[in-house]
Oxidoreductase OpS5 isoform X1
Amino acid sequence: MRVTDRTVLLIAALTIAVPVIGTVIELPTDYNRSSPWTELIELGVANYTETDCARTCVAGELPRVCLFTFVMEFYAAMGTACGNCSNGVLEDCYRSQCIPADGTEREVMSINRKIPGPAIHVCKNDLIVVNVINRMAGADVTLHWHGFRQKHSQWMDGVPYVTQCPVGGTSFRYIFPAEDDGTFFYHGHVGTHRTNGHYGALVVHAPKSEEPWTENLYSYDSVNHTIVSSDWMHETAEMFFPGLPSRQPGITPTTILINGLGRYYDGEADVDLVNASIPLATFHVQKNFRYRFRIINANSHVCPFITQVQNHSLMLIATDGKPIEPVTVDSLIHYPGERYDFVLIPLVNVTERDAFWIHFRALGSCESIKLDQYGVLSYDTTDDELGILPTRSRPTVSNPLPMGIVVNDPNTTCGANASRLCVTDFRSVGYDDADEVRRILTAKPDVNLIIPFGFHSFDVDTFHEDGSYHPFMNLGGENILSAWMNNISFTFPSSPILSSYNSYKSHGGYCDKDNLPANCLGNDDNATFTPYCECTQVVVLQQNDIVQMTLIDNVGLSSLNHPIHLHGFAFYVMHIHQNLTRDQMFTVSEVEEFLSTWEFEESDEASSTNMTVPPLKDTISVPSNGFVIVRFKADNPGSWLMHCHFEWHMSVGMMMVFKVEGTVSSRPPGFPECGNFDLLDESTAAAVQPNKCINRKPKIRSSTAPNHGKMTGV
């Protein structure tokens, strides 16, 4: 095949070039969002590694090309760049390329020698271009842009073997439009890379005049008021994946980081183990103004966080990037993958240069290990002032701030307590097509999916049978678990589903609950349990189907609420069902019976322009032993992963793929391909030049006799 000049140009456009910083590149409003390569070449984007996009967004302005270069490395927290940070020299903790984390030395996976990685702040309709350069020898990477629908850029979702091949020791340029404003984030989607440091903020701002709230709701929306929370271990995640029988502390976080900063406090021993001068995340504001904050939960483990700001209430105005009617709470509980926007409301008279504690505590199964962390809210100070600590009494795990009104409490029954709010108490605002929204909420669904998820427990003998290699995590002792959805533990194919679905389907390479492989455990007449299968689960949806999906927690642990994230879509959260007096899981038949009489409740005055619209989210926490009902319109053709956002649970199979039929944007020119290589495969053999050996009859001989060191041959 002849390589045309155009192909050479397109390949050149995907090459990382010499740094030129501070450039503004504007796009025509009518550029091709599904295939912008020609415009980018003509604009000379290949000649830059960074452009300037952080700005106040103005209605009617031309969108920009927002170019970032991310270099991924194995690096060190509290390494040589940090000087005397560990000895209390605070200025050294802020040195270029220093990652202080919680003051403990450990290997990390960094982006541009930062944790979190560089924050991305752009305006709605900008075109985001991220050059990913992988310098981690022996480790493949991808980046997922969490919450982005990628409706015109399905190839850029960043899921290995679903939308792309993982990136080895090479580079990959992600290009996608910022079509929706809101709070998002990015993170690694290979193995446990997010746990080791591959995550960062991604915020799409909009002109204030285009937001659904009154313009005086808040005064400022600053890039410096984004809060990224994460759990942190003192060992690499791989040390405890898939887990060890007796090594402590096992699969559990050691501390909490806020914007990559924090102090390690051993709650069980009641001892500070690092110097008190390790910096805390500090957020600067001025009196008499209202500020919009954005909080991103980048956790990997099973612990939700509760966030409180001393002597302040939080007016929630958005969840997962979607606007809601303002709701004022005192305590916000959030799960991995969730994002919330809020406006800070002081409850006391703020004095000059006042400061308050921002307190994070881990809940659920982490309450017993007493994890907490602090940030600082500082009034009338500047961003370059370091070491600010409030003089007010510091809250602790044993003496926390008053709970007040709480949202997302895992231990509440929705609707039972006015001070314990659920996500279903939120109301969406700012939607455009009210009639279409009403149809999605009230029409009989085209597809009604009931999806339980849970764990399969292996006995040691079955797990270690010769020739068996099951996905697993070891939670200590002989506790060996694999995760599933629909009793299927997901296994990745060898080529991305988005580009190779039809080929794999013709060879029986995919499965669903009605089309299972023959070798499932328990798939026989004598089985005493539901078959447990390991295969690539793909559920096919037709374009524009109205889909109602019920997610059932069949894990059976009272302290564990699973955050389920759906790529490519936002869904309406219709109903959250939990009965705290019930100590057993809901079965599929029980849920079916509930659904046969349940209907979404519209408000009494509901009309096409005035109705109760539940919140839109892309990540929802399913209560332990409960279930959640969501709805969405399958209007985004492509292959989209759905999974638990606990890193270990996803890694051992708690995920599945939706393939939405319809026209997908053309594959970018030269897009990498991957797959199995086997010279003995029939399809490969057909392309081999015939020779005298190919038609020989094989001489096959089996033997049960031991081979005592003798050479054998054919």
About this structure: The longest strand covers residues 65-77. The two ends are 40 Å apart (CA to CA). Confidence is low (pLDDT under 50) at residues 1-20, 604-609, 690-696, 704-714. The chain has two domains: 5-408, 434-660.
